[in-house]
Design goal:
Strand order of the largest sheet: 5-2-1-6-7-8
Number of domains: 1
Helix content: 40-55%
Distance between the termini: 31 Å
Structural class: alpha/beta
CATH class: Alpha Beta
Order of helices and strands: HHEHEHHEEHHHEHHEHEHEH
Oligomer: single chain
CATH architecture: 3-Layer(aba) Sandwich
Number of strands: 8
Number of helices: 13
CATH superfamily: Deoxyhypusine synthase
CATH topology: Deoxyhypusine Synthase
Largest sheet: 6 strands, parallel
Shape: globular
């Protein structure tokens, strides 16, 4: 048996050293986070490893936009799987909008009347979504006719990214660095809604099956696959499910607040994926229970620091 190694405030003074110390603590949440950091560090150092980042929940409006954009720009992430909402919120800021943290002294009925929307304790203004809508319509109007019905969602997002000028944008950096963004639930977002309304007057459609062919080619032609999954839901399932084609992930870290008792994939521990061939039998993986907007920045800054 190995004893718990207690964190020493005199020696463990940097994020990297604290994460190393947590690995030596070895138990409970500290041990999980320490092991997760070790797995992410191995992922980032392994040139044979294709690295997915999966995003569910309000990760972009929750303060992670800059870190994700940096990881893409610096080559640490090779593909993103996300909800449509995170794409929308990235585009809202790319088109000049913002997310606000100072709560107005209004209840939700008053917020609605004032043209504001609430996500927990952050706020967005309706006028920023109107600017976003105009940006999407302008982009669609400029799309060549031959692409109006032939693009996969990931290709559509990449095309859109090349038209942006905001260097902090995840969508722009992904387009510049040829990092595909897969969004199987994109239609369940304001972006999807605007694509639908546009299609009622002009021919436009995306080929979602084509995205699976693109993803399948990636999965079957890589030596190793790693994934960092923030939250659960469709993004997590799409990331893990695609790797069935090769017997599962080789390395994986999940940061989630979801619980396992309900039987949902979002709360399922990663070890459950072994039985479904979504995680290799010899894989290195760890589930960290907690708020990704807190844990993910600390983990990444500690690994890269």
């Amino acid at each position: 048996m190995r004893p718990v190694r207690h964190i020493d405030p005199a020696d463990d003074t940097t994020l990297r050293s604290i994460l190393e110390a947590m690995k030596d603590v070895g138990v409970l949440g500290a041990g999980r986070l320490g092991r997760a950091a070790s797995i992410v560090a191995r992922m980032f150092k392994d040139s044979d490893c294709f690295r997915f980042l999966s995003l569910s929940g309000p990760m972009v409006p929750g303060g992670l936009r800059g870190i994700i954009s940096h990881l893409v720009k610096s080559g640490y992430i090779n593909a993103i799987v996300t909800s449509g909402a995170n794409i929308v919120h990235d585009l809202v800021e790319a088109y000049g909008g913002a997310h606000y943290r100072v709560p107005p002294q209004k209840d939700d009925h008053e917020l609605r009347e004032a043209g504001m929307g609430r996500i927990a304790d952050l706020y967005v203004e309706e006028k920023d979504f109107e600017t976003f809508e105009k940006g999407i319509y302008d982009f669609l109007d400029a799309l060549p006719e031959e692409k109006m019905t032939s693009l996969a969602p990931s290709e559509f997002i990449s095309e859109l990214g090349t038209t942006l000028t905001d260097e902090a944008s995840i969508v722009r950096q992904a387009a510049l660095h040829e990092v595909p963004i897969f969004s199987p639930g994109m239609m369940d977002s304001m972006l999807g809604f605007h694509m639908y309304t546009y299609s009622t007057s002009k021919p436009f459609a995306l080929d979602f099956v084509k995205d699976l062919r693109i993803l399948g080619e990636i999965v079957t032609n890589t030596k190793k696959i790693g994934a960092i999954m923030l939250g659960g839901g469709l993004s997590k399932h799409f990331t893990m499910g695609s790797t069935i084609l090769r017997g599962g992930l080789d390395m994986a870290v999940q940061i989630t607040l979801d619980r396992p008792e309900g039987g949902s994939l979002g709360g399922a521990p990663l070890v459950e994926g072994v039985s479904w061939q979504k995680v290799q039998t010899e894989a290195r993986f760890e589930t960290v229970i907690g708020d990704a907007t807190i844990i993910f920045p600390l983990l990444i800054l500690g690994v890269l620091g």
